[in-house]
Amino acid sequence: MIIRIEPDSDIPIYQQITNQIIEGIARGSIQPGDSLPSVRAFAADLGVNMHTVNKSYHQLENKGIIRIAPKSGAVISSPQDFNASASDKLKEAFKPLIAESIVIGMSNEQIQELVTSIMEDLRKSNKHLK
Amino acid sequence: MTLAIFLIIAFILVGIQTAVPFLVKRTVIFGVTVPEKYLKNETLTSYKKGYALLVSLLSFVVLAGYLLWALMNNPSEQQTVLVGTVIQFGIILYSLTLYFFYHGKTLQLKKNNNWGEGLKQVKITDLSVRSQDEMLPWYVYLLPIVITVGVIGYTILQYDLLPKQIPTHWGINGEADAFTEKTPMSAILMPLTFLIMQFMFLGIHIGTKKSGIKLSAVNTSASRMRQLTLRKNSSWFMFIISFLLTVMFSFFQLKTIHPDLFAGITMAAAPILFLVIALAGTIAIAVKVGRSDKLSNDETELEITDFDEDAHWKGGLFYFNRKDPSIFVEKRFGVGWTLNFGNPIGYFIVLVPLVIILVISFL
User: Fold this and answer.
1) Which domains does chain A have, with CATH numbers?
2) Between chain A and chain B, how many beta carbons pairs sit less than 8 Å apart?
3) With 0-12 CB in 10 A as exposed, 13-18 as middle and 19+ as buried, what is A58?
4) The pTM is what?
5) Residues of A whose CB is below 8 A from B227
6) From the CA of A35, how many Å to the nearest CA of chain B?
7) Which one of A18, B209, B243, B297 counts the least CB within 10 Å of its CB?
């Protein structure tokens, strides 16, 4: 799976890496049980600071998306590994975005349409979720 | 013989120096990052041709002069070597000067035309690229180390058998031609020097393996091909060179201990053979790696370009990036590796063995 970052973007690099890995899992480009490269290899291949990759891995670990085991490195979790608190956290994260959508004058249908189109786009490329 | 060797090496040197602009990574011209759509720019092509022409023309004139001088004046072996060496250094310095001239011109061209303006700079990697890496495993480098440790151990055991004069230098015909007084240190100095060099090779190998596999966002498959080809071939090349050197010098050492045992066997052809393999390998790698990213062409998105790292490349030759954990990176001008001078581990791998070798040889 290709990771592409924009060093000059306003979004911090670690956040870009996190977002792309999550999106990659959603699209099925990487699957539960797959392991991610070591922090050093990842940082060297991308030519970024090791702390940046480390930060992203910790962020993913906090979200429960990867497990960091001493020997096998960072491994992608399965959907079964998540509990109710994960979706509670997401609710908090969704809230400001939906609020913003209402503020800029989007209707309920428009917001729902937007969410549906993003979901379709992600699931389209994921053969494993059909 | 000496003249022929010098001429052959010089010709190969000139050949490679001439071809460098055409063997380097396609998106870097004279050490300057050029966005994909300007790669075919006519001025850039004329720079490359100009460099190649200037390097080859003057070098060939000088080499022809060297040949004439040697044939007409019949100089001594020492003079031939001295003048030959000076000429080789001269060629390297001359092409370096031309490089800087064109590096400056390319930078100017890029700046004047605002290349890269309006393009989004990105960096990419492929999470699966590491599984395609075919570098040798590090432990094969233990083979020459084990052989050398064996030779050192054997030398210590057979210390009494060693002659009073220990050879310190061998001619191109494989015969010892310089000697020193026998001491425990001088007896094992040669294999010990090799041992340290082999550890350096091992360090370079591990350092390279841990270093980044750099992919280009605009020609991903071509750059992947080039990086993997360079990694695989350079690891094999360094191993073969290290192994052959070890075998050759171990034999020299054994011959010093047992001159009678190996009386019939001469290694006259070994140094020449080694030289041929080393030169042929260098040319093969340069051509193979140089071609590896010119064959396939990716579909490119027009609005993006690779992250411009020119600021990290001092003079387009020296890479200095503290943030990049890579120890070695692919050269910008030439085929092969160069140090990331921003990473102290690199200095450690390369300088420490050299310092140790210098210290023990002056002890």
Assistant:
1) 13-78 (1.10.10.10), 83-129 (no CATH)
2) 76
3) middle
4) 0.89
5) none
6) 9
7) B297
